[in-house]
Structure formats: C-alpha cells, structure tokens
Batch of 2 targets.
Target 1
Amino acid sequence: MEKKDLPNPRIAALLSFVFNGLGQIYNGEIKKGLTLIFLSGVSLLILIIGAIFIFYFLKALVSIGFLIWGVCLFFFGLIGIIIIGIYSISDAYNKAKKICEGNDTTS
C-alpha cells in the first residue's frame, strides 16, 4: 500500500468524534463502523425515550414510575453514547496508527 493510501490516525479519530463509526469506515472496517453507528442509534433512542418519560411525568403528573423509568432510561442511553463514543474514537485512531506502522495483521 502506498503512503498516500494509508489512513491518517488524526482524521480517523476526528471522523469518529463527529459521528461514531465513521473513523472505522474510513479505516476500511465497514462492518465494525456500521455496528457502532447502529449501537449509537440505539443508545440515542433509549435516551430520547427516557426524556419523553420524564417530560410526560412533569407535564401530566402521572405516577412516579414514569419518572423512575425515564431517569433510568435517560442515563442508560447517555452512558451508552459516552462509552461507544470513547471506544469509537480510540479504536479508529489506534487502528489507523497500526495500519500506518505496518503492524496490522488483520488486513
């Protein structure tokens, strides 16, 4: 592989920072990138559902169960987004660095 065809670790990390999974796709790991995009979407959906439960509790003053479920779902989704984001950025950077150094054994 020529030097100009090698992925830049900084660009890979930046792409994953902008949108989880894009750095993996940039590095040629399409399946992993799509999986991270899917997991990010699921985490975001969980966060939104939690926010809706909290809003519904505050607006309609329904049972405390809505608030408890809302808070749990909101924080579960938020933690998922954070963990996936950190993993996506660090994995994209490290993989691109390994490819550039010629230590990549999987491609």
Target 2
Amino acid sequence: MFDFSAQQDFSEERQKLLAYAQLCNVFYERELKLLGELDESAEKLKKRLQSLPFYIKRAAETLLSLDNPLTLDTQNGTWSNKQRRRCPADKIDSEQNRLWLQKNAQIGLLVPVVKTLQGETSIRLDCIDALDENKVRLNEHGWFDEYGQCLQPTEGEKRLLRANKDLISAAACGHQWIGQDATLPRTLSLRELLLTTNINWKNLNKPKPLS
C-alpha cells in the first residue's frame, strides 16, 4: 500500500529546505554587499566575514521555526503585514511613553524607535540594555529620557515609543512613510531580523521567555 503520509512529509521537508536555502542566499547577498560598502580595516572585515555563516544559519533556522502574526517572504528575506496609511507612532504621546516605561522598562525588552530623516519616517526595533534612574539605554540607538526623547546628538530625529502590536509589526516589516503617506518598506539588516525572532507576541510588555 502506498504511504501518502510519507509522501506528504517528504514534500513538506523539501519545501522547508528550499525556503532555508532561499533565506541563506538572500542574506549572504545582502550582507556581503553591506560589508563591501563599509570603511573598515581588513582585520575587522575578516572577523565579520568569519562570523557571517553562523549568524546567517541562525537567522534562517529561527525565522522558519517561528509562529507569529507576520508573513515570511523567503525569497526576499523579509516579514510582511498590512501597512497603515499613517504612521502609528503619531498616536503615541510623551506622557503615554513615560507611564509605559515607568511600568515596563527592563533589560532585554524589545522596543520601537521612530526615526525621521529628511522627511522620511521609519520605525526601528531595538533592545533595552541599561537602566539609570529616569533614563534607558538602547543597544543601537543610545540613551533616551523617561518620556522617550533622545538624549544625544543624532542624525535626524529619534523617539523611543511604547511597544504595541502596530508599532512592533511596522518595525519588523520595515514600514516607512513620507509625510502623511505610506511608501515602500525598507530592508532590515541581519541584526534587525535576528531581533524580530525575539519578539514576545504574547506579551509585548515583557522580554521573550527563554526556551
């Protein structure tokens, strides 16, 4: 008797391997292009190239294993979800940020940062890595006060926002806006994609539990 379940399992495994290969290929292309544009010493470039296979394999394997509300495009190595016509950051004020950070700020928590540069607005995903009285420090974007205002010189404008589903989804999908209108999404770096694998969709106010 022909085993249809075995055929189905083989087909699913084949599709998963194809998706894994597609993700690895697009990540290598993207990261090598980025490294080629960096003005760094040969020694630093060598170290980054040596670590690249580990992070690419880790990203591809983890992205394929996730169960979340976003859709994974394996050919482009991106998350997708319906984009809001207006930037959802416009609904968040400074007092809301203060109250939320006062209650929820902790090391390891993923948070959205709205960045506006030359009229283009995007939302970036970052991680709290230090707390100091009424200040928080993010791993990439630096120090912010209790209201979410950036405390250091920066290119353009940056504001730390309270986490909610609209903002975290927009950050993970690279959504952008020019003025009051949505525009094409940006492509996330490998670092940002790895951050998306740590989103705690069940409770955005807490870091993802260790598995």
